[in-house]
Amino acid sequence: MSKEVVISTRIRLARNLKDYPFPCKLGKQGREKVIEKVKSAIKDSNSAIASDFSFINMESLTPQQSVSLVERRLVSPEFISNTEGRGLLISSDESLSIMINEEDHIRLQVIKPRLSLEQAYDTADKLDTLLDENLDFAFDKKLGYLTQCPTNLGTGMRASVMLHLPALEKSKAISRIAGNLSKLGLTIRGAHGEGTEPKGAMYQLSNQVTLGISEKAAIENLKNITIQLVTQENQARERLCESIDVRDAISRSLGILRSALVITHEEALKLLSNVRLGILSGQIKDIDTETVDKLMTAVEPATLSVNSNRQMSPEERDEERAKLIRETLK
Amino acid sequence: MSKEVVISTRIRLARNLKDYPFPCKLGKQGREKVIEKVKSAIKDSNSAIASDFSFINMESLTPQQSVSLVERRLVSPEFISNTEGRGLLISSDESLSIMINEEDHIRLQVIKPRLSLEQAYDTADKLDTLLDENLDFAFDKKLGYLTQCPTNLGTGMRASVMLHLPALEKSKAISRIAGNLSKLGLTIRGAHGEGTEPKGAMYQLSNQVTLGISEKAAIENLKNITIQLVTQENQARERLCESIDVRDAISRSLGILRSALVITHEEALKLLSNVRLGILSGQIKDIDTETVDKLMTAVEPATLSVNSNRQMSPEERDEERAKLIRETLK
């Protein structure tokens, strides 16, 4: 069952070029040089991975296209807050991406479905090696990789899993769990990371410690805690879904999603989360979690606009969202 | 369209026997004599109508069976508040009924579907004539039929129509209309008459004046006003149902009714009223108003219990109600 509570796994590595100041200290020209160096490192390599990447100049995007990248978890909210001298390299299936000139020169990211920390790390490691062949990274023998923010110093790695925890949320166990996790060097927060509120019972669990611990050990730690959380969620779900009121809420949520003509983003996520709970508990049998997971991203405001290829008012978006949901779940 | 806004028509005649005090002044024995006289008047007649009646001793009913009679609009709430020495004659299709020893000795009632005041009055008149052949009614040449309450004196007739007015209710026009109606000798109130709140946008419109006006004139007046109200409702509906929010509420209402596992009486009526509005506006095409109208009565608490043939807690009833609705509307 673990593969269904865990929606996706992400590995992110922070790297900086030895001969350049951190992006915040770099002017536009300096940033553009960094972009050129990273692009070349990918393009000039002989790897199959490399030829699959395309480059996006962040300055060329509309605000909605930028926001949609955040909604799809391909870049950080910070990355689009100021797009000057920033670029994105991204693979065709969007599972690999490299933010250039975010907080660090390079933030490479690998996303895999379900719980797959080792595989995601393997891929990230290969991409890192490939870049390392053509670039000179800022590295200290004692400290490890140097990063702009000291919290990333060392491995420069953040590993995280996206978890759907409706039962732990509904039973109010999540805040107690969050408190305990920080003692274990982990943190749990909303789906879009730091400073974001959980929506649709989606939580991001990630490692906090990057110094004095190997990547393997950090991943092992995160994996063990994830498996424990999944077990707790499964147990809480079993108890919760015995209640007729919860089963009623699940059934109504699907009924509303299948019939609404107008729906806000917030309501859609809440109802989709209930439907996902219903699928996991076995109450809903004609829909799979993959469909719901894709919808959860597709109903995000900017992604909805980008996918429909037109400018929409918030009211039009609420209608478009309802239509997409009805057609997907019918 | 008028036939769809008007759900049913009812004619009620109040009659008293000349040689007996009004029921409130009669002891149990006296009441039982009145019951016997009325039963005999029906049974001894040669009419086809007569042989179709069955008799219910109100004292023999369970509280739920009594309440169900009120919910199905076959007797008044007052009639079941004290069942001693009270009886009910009722035709097999429940369209004709005679309350014996309510406020008056006889309250005969005819219910017909849709707007059919003349037909309902014709039937009531025939039943009245049949009773008159075998009973001696208290009648004054100047005043007309004598009744316990002076508001019924004269014709002793209450004619009423049951109207579904969701658009006039939602657009808040109904209170203004109610004020005007009283000046025209009519009154509008909740579905179960005097002192009841409207539920599911169901309103009972009836004549108030029984003295100094013929039955025909009273019926003509009620009919004209009904037709005007239907026109106003139709116009209000057309305006109202242009709104996407109203159309969304209608669509969601059906979605919830088709998926809820638990539903209260109040919520069910509210949602059924929205669905009925959707049928009349043409938005909902796979359900007819007759189905909804039958459900509106079938979901009433006591009727639900009586029809399911078992004692139920309020929680069980909310589940049973949801099940009945799901199965009827699927």
Helix-strand pattern of chain A, N to C? HEHHEHHEEEHEEEHHEEHHHHHH
Label the overall shape of chain A: globular
* Rg of chain A (C-alpha, Å): 21 Å
Largest interface: A-B, 17 and 16 residues
Quaternary status of these chains? homodimer
Biggest sheet record of chain A? 8 strands, antiparallel
Uncertain segments of chain A are none
Average per-residue pLDDT of chain A, rounded, comes to: 92
Task: Give the termini separation of chain A.
Answer: 25 Å
Secondary-structure-derived class of chain A: alpha+beta
Based on the model shown, name its key terms.
homodimer; 330 residues; alpha+beta; two-stranded antiparallel sheet
Descriptive overview:
Two copies of one chain form a homodimer. Chain A is of the alpha+beta class and 330 residues long. In chain A, 49% of the residues lie in helices and 17% in strands. The first copy, chain A, contains 14 helices and ten strands. The first copy, chain A, has helices at residues 2-5, 28-43, 48-51, 63-71, 77-81, 117-134, 166-170, 174-183, 215-240, 244-259, 265-280, 289-298, 301-308, 314-329; strands spanning 6-15, 53-57, 87-91, 96-100, 106-113, 139-140, 144-145, 157-164, 186-190, 202-207. Chain A has an eight-stranded antiparallel β-sheet with strand order 2-3-4-5-1-8-10-9. Chain A has a two-stranded antiparallel ribbon with strand order 6-7. In chain A, α13 (301-308) crosses α14. Chain A is globular, with a radius of gyration of 21 Å. The model of chain A has no long low-confidence stretch (mean pLDDT 92). The A-B interface holds A 244-245, 247-248, 251-252, 254-256, 258-262, 315, 319, 322 and B 244-245, 247-248, 251-252, 254-256, 258-262, 319, 322.
